[in-house]
Amino acid sequence: MHRHRPELLPAPSRRIIMGMTKPAAITLLAWDRLLDAGARAMRAARRELKRAGLPPLEWYDILAAIDRRGPGRPRDLQAYLGIEQYNLSRLLSRMERAGLVTIMPCPGDARGQIVDLTPAGREQRAAMWPAYSTAIHHTMESRLDSDERIQLAGMLEKVA
Amino acid sequence: MHRHRPELLPAPSRRIIMGMTKPAAITLLAWDRLLDAGARAMRAARRELKRAGLPPLEWYDILAAIDRRGPGRPRDLQAYLGIEQYNLSRLLSRMERAGLVTIMPCPGDARGQIVDLTPAGREQRAAMWPAYSTAIHHTMESRLDSDERIQLAGMLEKVA
DNA sequence: GAATTTTCGATGCACCGACATGGATCGGAA
DNA sequence: TTCCGATCCATGTCGGTGCATCGAAAATTC
What we know:
By secondary structure, chain A is mainly α. Chain A has a single domain (6-159), classed as Arc Repressor Mutant, subunit A, CATH 1.10.10.10. In chain A, 61% of the residues lie in helices and 6% in strands. Chain A contains 6 helices and 2 strands, in the order H-H-H-H-E-E-H-H. Chain A has helices at residues 25-51, 57-69, 74-81, 85-97, 119-141, 146-159; strands at residues 101-105, 113-117. Chain A has a two-stranded antiparallel ribbon. In chain A, helix 1 packs across helix 5 and helix 2 crosses helix 5 (119-141). The two termini of chain A are 19 Å apart. Chains A and B meet through helix 1, helix 2, helix 3, helix 5 and helix 6 of A and helix 1, helix 2, helix 3, helix 5 and helix 6 of B. Chain A binds a DNA duplex through residues 1, 46, 50, 56, 58, 73-75, 84-91, 93, 106, 109-113. Chains A, B: InterPro entries: HTH_MarR-typ, MarR/SlyA-like, WH-like_DNA-bd_sf, WH_DNA-bd_sf. Chains A, B: This is Transcriptional regulator, MarR family.
């Protein structure tokens, strides 16, 4: 969300502003741009998906995760995706209602469940990819060359 | 939000996964980490603020923007901060209710308003800074050296 | 200067997310 | 065994956000 306009040196994007205490100016600039760029990227992806009349971004992550990892339990998905338990719970029931996943009782643990993709779920994931990848391309590839993308990925790895 | 767990090469964070179509692998990696790092940074800041019983992150941006730019109109704030109009509208009325800003009719344009900080608003912004800067420090300075922060800021500027 | 278009800000509605809690089950300790 | 704490998932509540749209007031056009 938010994100300001320039004012300092080169170009747009800035966020903090002050010099009240510790962080150095460059730190604030990097922080600001990180939040800004992240938020923009996210919105771009959501916009593309919506424009195509497709499900929300979160669904893609879940569909992709299950597709990749195979059927499994919500608590594992939750750890894998790094989302909140209650959030995943509701996402899965919406997706089940939409016919994209199946939720079955877990043999061996009556508390648990096994979630899997339906064929429609696999199709939906495939259908979402073009819109999603458009956003990715537009955000990353059209603005950074290959070396820069490698650099960026390296820096971001340390931050996350 | 979300963000997955590793599986590819070096370290955590990944998101897309596939190679169905266009974007190169490094692009997907960078994209994934961008969203991941952005979301983590955001959550870290929110967590700090909440822990200190302070208002949400968005308020800081608005308080800081007004403090920096002086009294002004919502539509300018909106452009400056890069947030949605309806969103700013509601944020401002909550902040007005909290006594942090004043909203006055705009002389010269009966549609518009002039928003300014109250003394309490200024204090609140100052009170939020330590918690906020803690998150910034923890996210950026403890993980990247000065050169890396400069590099990162440079890459991100292009993306945003 | 009247009519049309654009801008400014507010708001109803639905959804989503955070938070706290609940109910069921499991596992381990006594 | 019998408890008791931990784990797994669901859900009520509430506040925030996105989207569409609205009413009012400029600005533009003719």
